[in-house]
Amino acid sequence: MKSVLKSFQTPPAALALAVAVACTVCAAPVAAQTRAALVQSVDEPARNPYQEVQFNATCRGTTVCSFEFAPVAAGKRLVVTHISGYIDTASGVPPNGFFQSTLGGSAYATVPFTGVRGPTSALGARYFINQQVLAYFNVGESPRATMQIFGDLASGGALLMVSGYYVNVP
Questions:
Q1: Strands lying side by side in the sheet with 153-168
Q2: Cβ contacts of residue 164 below 8 Å, gap of 6+?
Q3: Residue 24 vs residues 14, 17, 33: alpha-carbon distances, Å
Q4: Cα–Cα distance between 125 and 19 in angstroms, integer?
Q5: What global pTM score does this model have?
Q6: Coil, strand, or helix at residue 121?
Q7: Per-residue pLDDT in tens (0 to 9) along the chain, 170 residues
Q8: Which residue segments constitute the domains of the chain, with CATH numbers given?
């Protein structure tokens, strides 16, 4: 009977070893789990915003006002999403505007836009432009815009702002 009772009495060190082995075996699957990869959206519009403003006073007294914006930097593609500004006309006739995007070679895709009449004075009328567009420009290309009016430009000239975002080109 003493031998049976002796077999139920284990030393504390042996018991601690048995618990440690059991914990190690149970903890192995938890340690083998992989962590989620960190992802980053590099083409998200808010990461690489673009905005450029051009004022043209040299087109006063003509019927065409032209704008040429900075060329697209290496490793980027420009996506233009909005165009806004104003043009002062002496005739009070709304302008016709064109925003040009080269899409391979010398072919142009033209996005038309027009203005909404604003205040008038003895010098003419101011037309405001505020329009969404979608145009793409590759490395080295320069966004171009023209505004045509029927009659002369007034003394104020014209201002044009384009905005959008850059996309990284692999």
A1: 49-56, 153-168, 76-89, 124-137, 116-121
A2: 45, 49, 50, 78, 79, 80, 81, 82
A3: 15, 11, 15
A4: 89
A5: 0.66
A6: strand
A7: 455 445 545 566 666 666 666 666 555 455 556 776 666 666 677 778 999 999 887 776 667 888 889 999 999 999 988 889 888 877 767 778 888 876 544 444 455 666 777 777 666 778 888 888 888 888 988 888 888 776 666 566 788 999 999 998 87
A8: 2-31 (no CATH), 45-168 (2.60.120)
Question: For the CA atoms of 68, 107, 127, 129, what is the dihedral angle to 10 degrees?
Answer: -80
What's the token pair of residue 99? 């925003």
- Sole residue written with tokens 């000239």: 157
